[in-house]
């Protein structure tokens, strides 16, 4: 009898982590960009 781990659990988990991390980085970048644009507009008004 052979007891082997199912590799698909790890494959799915790694894809989930990768996609989640990519989505988090995109959200962080968008928020940073919006803040920078807001600061630029405020600096132009002065």
Structural overview:
It comes from Novosphingobium beihaiensis. This is Heme exporter protein D. Keywords: Membrane, Transmembrane, Transmembrane helix. With 46 residues, this protein is an all-alpha fold. It is 85% helix and 0% strand. It is built from 1 helix and no strands. It has one helix at 7-45. It is rod-shaped, with a radius of gyration of 21 Å. The model has no long low-confidence stretch (mean pLDDT 93).
- Radius of gyration from the CA trace? 21 Å
Strand content: under 5%
Please tell me what the overall shape is.
Answer: rod-shaped
* Structural class by secondary-structure content: mainly alpha
Average pLDDT number: 93
> What distance separates the N and C termini?
77 Å
H and E order: H
Oligomer: single chain
- Report the uncertain regions: none
Helix segment count?
1
- Helical content stands at over 70%
How many individual β-strands?
A: 0
Task: Indicate the topology.
Elements lengths: L6 H39 L1
In short:
This protein has one helix at 7-45. The protein is mainly α. Keywords: Membrane, Transmembrane, Transmembrane helix.
Highlighted features:
1 helix, 46 residues, rod-shaped, mainly alpha
């Amino acid at each position: 009898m052979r007891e082997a781990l199912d590799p698909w659990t790890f494959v799915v988990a790694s894809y989930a982590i990768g996609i989640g991390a990519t989505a988090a980085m995109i959200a962080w970048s968008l928020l940073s960009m919006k803040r920078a644009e807001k600061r630029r507009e405020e600096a132009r008004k002065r």
